[in-house]
Design brief:
Elements lengths: L4 E4 L12 H8 E2 L7 E7 L4 E7 L5 E2 L15 E7 L4 E5 L2 E5 L3 E5 L6 E5 L8 E7 L7 E4 L6 E3 L8 E7 L10 E7 L5 E2 L4 E2 L3 E8 L7 E7 L2 E7 L3 E5 L6 E4 L4 E8 L8 E2 L7
Parallel strand pairs: 1-3
Antiparallel strand pairs: 2-21, 3-4, 4-11, 5-10, 6-9, 6-11, 7-8, 7-10, 9-12, 13-14, 14-15, 15-23, 16-22, 17-24, 18-21, 18-23, 19-20, 19-22
Pathway: Glycan metabolism; pectin degradation; 2-dehydro-3-deoxy-D-gluconate from pectin: step 4/5
EC number: 5.3.1.17
Keywords: Isomerase, Metal-binding, Zinc
Length: 280
């Protein structure tokens, strides 16, 4: 059975100038990423990234696309990143199975025909967050555990942004065509991420926020630096960040998020920093 996805089209910053909160949420927010027993995906025309959640329970799940992407199978011309944020699961890649505990990740190269997701305990299902982008070359599949990554420790308690950044799909860890993917964990007492903020005109990004209490919220900042807007997100909700937009957030408590990027290059530090005095 063909997998379905939600289509999101691109926007000029001029387009969103007069958007209401409801319009912004409709265009940039994904309110439900994980649904038990289902695959929930969004196709953003910003660099043609497909992202979302795969939450198997009693039956395995496989992403199946052909006509929707003009190919014979999903990864014929794409690469895929996976990070599990739920219970223990199994990922089967062209009949080779690997166990995936929470915070395990995987890079899967183009021309991989079958990727099947399952959970060891349907009552505590795995939650596989995936990002897929077009690829021009086949690189080796690599399993990546958070235990194998030396995190970047950055921020300061005085500015409420002390955090650890784990780079999963990154040139320091594995090769990819254009996909980058990582996991950021804020320390208790910290609530800001990526402030001072930046843009990167050469890449777009998606975020999924999680490990949040039910009554915790994230205020995600977006828009041009001199004309900012915000959206309020709950646990396990995602946001699309175009290349021209800032992408900072502040929460009512600490939280975690997965970031996925793609575009012209894979240089993590390719950022255009924004001076605080230029924010409006």
């Amino acid at each position: 059975m063909q997998t379905k996805f939600d289509n999101r089209y691109t926007h000029s910053p001029e387009d969103i100038r007069h958007y209401s909160t409801e319009q912004l949420r409709k265009e940039f927010l994904v309110e439900e990423v994980f649904k038990s027993g289902e695959i929930k995906l969004t196709y953003t025309h910003n660099d043609r990234m497909i992202f979302g959640g795969v939450t198997p329970t009693t039956e395995p799940l496989e992403i199946v696309f052909d006509k929707a992407l003009g190919v014979e199978y999903f990864l014929e011309r794409r690469e895929l990143g996976v990070i599990n944020i739920g219970g223990e699961g199994i990922i089967e890649i062209d009949s080779q199975a690997d166990t995936m505990k929470k915070q395990d990740g995987y890079y899967i190269g183009k021309e991989t025909r079958h990727v099947v997701f399952s959970s060891k305990n349907p009552k505590n299902p795995a939650k596989f967050y995936i990002s897929s982008v077009p690829a021009h070359h086949k690189y080796p599949n690599v399993k990546i555990s958070i235990d194998q990554i030396k995190p970047m420790e950055t921020g300061d308690p005085l500015t409420l942004n002390e955090r650890k950044i784990y780079q999963y799909i990154h040139p320091n860890v594995c090769e990819s065509c254009q996909l980058q993917m990582g996991y950021t964990i804020l320390e208790p007492g910290s609530s800001w991420n990526t402030m001072p903020c930046h843009t990167h005109e050469r890449r777009m990004e998606t975020y999924v926020y999680f490990d949040m209490a039910e009554d915790t919220r994230i205020f995600h900042m977006m828009g041009k630096p001199d004309e900012t807007k915000h959206l309020v997100l709950g646990n396990e909700q995602a946001i699309i960040s175009p290349s021209w937009s800032i992408h900072s957030g502040v929460g009512t408590s600490n939280y975690s998020f997965i970031w996925s990027m793609c575009g012209e290059n894979i240089t993590y530090t390719d950022m255009d920093m924004v001076d605080m005095k230029d924010l409006k």
